[in-house]
Design goal:
Oligomer: single chain
InterPro entries: ZIP (IPR003689)
Radius of gyration: 18 Å
Shape: globular
Subcellular location: Cell membrane
Keywords: Cell membrane, Membrane, Transmembrane, Transmembrane helix, Zinc
Family: Belongs to the ZIP transporter (TC 2.A.5) family.
Order of helices and strands: HHHHHHHHHH
Strand content: under 5%
Protein name: ZIP family metal transporter
Helix content: over 70%
Structural class: mainly alpha
């Protein structure tokens, strides 16, 4: 619901200009970078520490997971079939174009990162501490608001209608309740997997942002300044939410 709430502004936005697209894509990139570190990597290290790992062991585990996540999303770009066969190409744009593929990799990375977040909520409630679960759910829900906006904006920038972009953005958050049920059902196993899941998601998002989103936005005419401005705004907003409510 929070992800869908974040996507609502997309419904009333006009089709952005190239400069506005760069600003918004930069915002999306900043949100994802902050989420990678403050919502995923740092909590993953803490979880590993609580599970008995040393500081070095926890760091090594999460570093390995981050690198594995980046490798997996890089390979996904090679394995994904032409988007016209999947019905994902927006009208008026070549379905297999590089920009469309990059944005869908971005959406996939955001969706992937929602899975361990949902599992974290399920584990928190499944451990028997309702207050801890409620706080975790509230913090992750607040973080999902700018994430929903980021996905909707990214899809809108490559030609999707406002309604479809908002709907897909909302759908990207649907994995969280599913993962939450899994976390409640298998608390012990979920806790053991959580550092790896968080690290994998972080690596995937960092790779997509660094290799696709930022370079693609900078490639637009006179777009560098807007990209950086948007990135810093998104980074600051998400960092505030993560450190305040995380």
């Amino acid at each position: 619901m929070a992800t869908g709430l974040g996507a609502i502004p997309v419904l009333v936005m006009r089709q952005p200009s190239d400069q506005q697209q760069n600003l918004l894509l930069g915002f999306a990139a900043g949100v994802m970078l902050a989420a990678s570190f403050f919502s995923l990597i740092l909590p993953a290290i803490e979880v590993a520490r609580h599970q008995g790992a040393s500081q070095a062991g926890a760091s090594i585990t999460v570093v390995a997971a981050v690198l594995l996540g980046a490798f997996a999303i890089a390979k996904l770009n090679d394995w994904v079939p032409p988007l016209d066969k999947l019905g994902l190409g927006p009208p008026g744009i070549a379905a297999a174009s590089a920009s469309v593929r990059r944005i869908w990799l971005f959406v996939a990375a955001v969706t992937l990162h929602n899975f361990p977040e949902g599992m974290a909520v399920g584990v928190s409630f499944g451990g028997g501490d309702f207050d801890a679960g409620r706080v975790t759910a509230l913090g992750i829900g607040l973080q999902n608001i700018p994430e929903g906006l980021a996905v909707g904006v990214a899809l809108s920038s490559i030609g999707y209608s406002r309604g479809r972009a908002a709907l897909i953005a909302a759908a990207s958050g649907l994995v969280e309740p599913v993962a939450g049920l899994i976390g409640v059902s298998i608390v012990t196993v979920a806790q053991a997997f959580l550092p790896w899941g968080l690290g994998l998601a972080a690596g995937a998002m960092i790779y997509v942002v660094a290799s696709d989103i930022i370079p693609d936005a900078h490639a637009r005419i006179n777009g560098g300044g807007k990209v950086t401005t948007g990135l810093m705004i998104g980074l600051a907003a998400m960092m505030f939410l993560d450190t305040t409510f995380g």
